[in-house]
Amino acid sequence: MSASRHARVPVHPAVQAVTDRIVRRSRPGRIAYLDMIERARAAGRSRSALGCSNLAHTVAACGPAERTALVGEAAVSLGIVTSYNDMLSAHQPFETYPRHIKDVAAGIGAVALVAGGVPAMCDGITQGRAGMELSLFSRDVIAMATAIALSHDVFDGALLLGVCDKIVPGLVEGALAFGHLPAALVPAGPMASGLPNAEKAAVRRQHAAGEIGRTEPAAGRGRVVPLARHLHVLRHRQQQPAC
Fold it and tell me: Carries keyword Iron (predicted)?
């Protein structure tokens, strides 16, 4: 491969100017954040500094083995933050993830606890209704809920269960409030596609033309697609649940 392929492409002056301005304006906030993370890291394991009553609350809902492990110093404690609900096909599989994670953690001498849940909505469900106005705002709520879940301050790491374009950023933003802890984003796995895009697009065009759901065909409007057929297609607009 020629050296020219590795030559650095000059940054457009406008892009560089914007980047430099962002760096300058964000410097105080970045310094404060990194200082907070460094102080938290230097303080060591937060669970070790808990008072007796705090620790008692932490282990109250645990089984005997988990309780013994958490009271000791050796076991790693993992906090699970989940976006599970039955409304979204991409999130429904998370119903069983915490149990699997707990079993695997126990097998290696660690303890995994569900620290909290976060809301997860889908634009595809709320589109065209008042609920769609909450879509982007929900990301902030998810970030706050994630930070609240991790504020128990007894974890050595975090597992963030979520997918989709609002839930993932919210989970990551919330976890960054505890940036001294290692965290991993856990998706729900591959998903089989639903109906072909062309078929879904055809039904949407029919719906827009008023050809779906009517009991009688209007003169000159062509055939009527039964509402049941429309609902069948709508059920497949979203991808199928993850494997």
Answer: yes
Structure-token match 């990551």, residue found: 172
Q: Which of these ranges, 93-102, 155-164, 234-243, has the smallest mean pLDDT?
A: 234-243
CA angle 173, 95, 69 (to 5 degrees): 75
HSE-up of residue 35 (Cα within 13 Å, Cβ side): 6
Q: Are 171 and 184 in contact (CB under 8 A)?
A: no
What does the block give as tokens for 104?
């695997």
pTM: 0.74
Of 132, 147, 179, the C-alpha closest to 32 is: 179
Find all residues with CB under 8 Å of 147, minimum gap 6, and list them: 174, 175, 177, 178
Is 215 found in the same domain as 107? no
Q: How high does pLDDT run on average in the chain?
A: 82
Name the residue range of residue 95's domain. 44-186
Residues 6+ apart with CB under 8 A from 135: 121, 123, 126, 166
Instruction: Give the mean model confidence (pLDDT) for residues 97-115.
Output: 94
Q: What's the CATH code of the domain at 102?
A: 3.40.50
Q: Residue 215: inside a domain, yes or no?
A: yes
The more confidently predicted of residues 55 and 76 is: 76
Considering its fold, how many domains does the chain have in total? 2
Residues 140 and 218 in one domain: no
